[in-house]
Design goal:
single chain; 257 residues; 2 strands; 57% helix; 5% strand
């Protein structure tokens, strides 16, 4: 920090010294703590995946260096420990076989900076629930069981759709702008049932009345569901964690009898 800024801050009794400390020793200490915490999650994730599934050359390359610098930069501007964990897990996942061909790694790392806990929670809540027997097509006695690929396709097709209000609506609209969720807009405005041949003024007035009534109080419904990009983002971030998956599964199981 420049001596000029230090001099200005010294003119503010008490507060100036505190701000000066935050911009020097304390800032360095806290950033180092976040770096250590991030690499702790990085190491734990590598152990979970298994070193045999990690591309060691990837971690020596320029692309990983770019991801690392972006993650380090974010550590200076966040105190959210969940974000620190997400960054560590994502850096580790970037070098695993499952994400070797993923071309949006830098985009996913960038998302972490802009998303809040509310955004992440909403995304996790939209993860497709496990299919139950009533959701599966009927199986005959001579029909072989569904393979894993087909079950995954059915699960994705039946993923949740929510109609939010208030802050959740604003948050989901932002997620839609990022491409992490899909939005469907439905309107109550319907095409009026107008006679093909209008032969009288009463028919004309009736047709206009029907048009105006449909336009006066339109009801717009917005619903959202997880997008393929959002699904890949959550996987890259190692979300949901085991405890989050259990809670989400239990909540979804109670949605219907």
């Amino acid at each position: 920090m420049s001596s000029g800024v230090t001099g200005i801050l010294s003119l503010i009794p008490g507060v100036g010294a505190a701000v000066t400390e935050l911009m020097t020793e304390v800032a360095i200490q806290r950033t180092n703590e976040r770096v250590n915490e991030m690499f702790g999650h990085f190491t734990n994730r590598i152990r979970e995946v298994g070193e045999d599934k990690v591309d060691r050359d990837w971690f020596r390359g320029a692309e990983f260096q770019t991801l690392l610098y972006e993650a380090m930069r974010q550590l200076h501007v966040t105190h959210d420990r969940e974000k620190v964990e997400m960054l560590g897990v994502a850096l580790a996942n970037s070098g695993t076989s499952g994400f070797r061909s993923e071309e949006r790694k830098d985009l996913f790392i960038h998302f972490v900076r802009d998303l809040t806990r509310q955004h992440v929670k909403l995304l996790i809540d939209l993860i497709p629930r496990p299919l139950r027997r009533p959701d599966l097509p009927p199986m005959g006695p001579n029909v072989p069981p569904l393979d894993e690929r087909v079950i995954q396709q059915l699960t994705w097709h039946n993923r949740r759709s929510v109609t939010p209000k208030g802050d959740d609506l604003l948050a989901l609209q932002m997620l839609h702008a990022y491409g992490l969720v899909e939005e469907e807009i439905r309107s109550s405005v319907k095409e009026p049932n107008t006679p093909v041949n209008i032969t009288s003024q009463s028919q004309l007035r009736s047709a206009w009345r029907e048009i105006l009534n449909s336009l006066m109080k339109p009801v717009v419904t917005r619903s959202f569901r997880l997008s393929p990009l959002g699904n890949e983002f959550l996987k890259f971030m190692g979300l949901p964690k085991n405890n989050e998956a259990t809670v989400a599964s239990e909540l979804h199981a109670n949605d219907s009898p």
